[in-house]
Predict the structure.
Amino acid sequence: MSDLEKRAQEFRQKVDALRAEVGKVVVGHRAVVDQVIICLLAGGHALLEGVPGLGKTLLVRTLAKCLSLKFSRIQFTPDLMPADILGTNIVVEEGGRRSFQFQQGPIFGNLVLADEVNRATPKTQSALLEAMSEACVTVAGKRYELGQPFFVLATQNPIEMEGTYPLPEAQLDRFMFKIHVLPSELGDLVTVIERTTGAATPEPQPVMSGADILGMRALAREVPIASHVKEFAARLVLASHPDTAETAPVAKKFLRFGSSPRGAQSLVLAGKILALMKGRFNVSVEDIKEAAYPAMRHRLIRNFEGEAEGVSADAIVKDLIAAVPDVPKRVEKLLAAE
């Protein structure tokens, strides 16, 4: 076994161990857990959307316990200020002399939960932007680096919109994935009741360190991807734009703007991690298709017709995947000639 194959096997074993520990507390939601893990290992950030009580916050807390990382929780409210997130300079007195000392805010963690992020004002939401994109913050003209790994997992409630401030498109684009958390199935719900109303409560154990995560991120970027698979990801993104040569019919009809280049980057990075999670060291078109829903659903801006007809982003992504051929036409011609 080569060194690369050995590292790929260890990657999968660590992910399986992490899944098992998270599964001690979080029942079901396998796709949600996997998508959060993909974002973490890709160095991206995730936005979880679901109604209250589905275990979004519990998932993040459990993940932090399994990863031996510094965990911070920020409960977003309308009166929250940027300094409450980033930190502020305070006056300290030593030996009769006064000076300013920077007091770090909760953003200085490895795993940061931004709970109900759409309840804060745009001014406060923007405090996350620099941290999410550059892994540093600026306070009083001075830049402070954040520790690595750094991962923001934000949650929002889609049904209670009074007194909320929807995230602007620029900030949504900072999230690698937008993950839908759906209600549990019958069997999973029964298990939840048994675990949470009994005498004993399962406690997850740490299975991964920050160094492990950084090593796995580096390995994921080494996974090769064939040119036609890479091109499929690019054509899928271009197909979402209503005014390009690659435009899909569904984009012309229902979209005002398509996915950004970050969408293509997210597709490829997620595809590489999915391949490793499945025991392969090469990315397939199916990996890109699987990543397309969480990577693109928050990057598609519907037009008036799309809004009026209530067409969901996932339905549009499904049509985009169907409209984009797996193999470019020029490659099909070469294969036919052979």
Q: What stands out?
A: The first helix runs from residue 3 to 23. The chain has a mean pLDDT of 85.
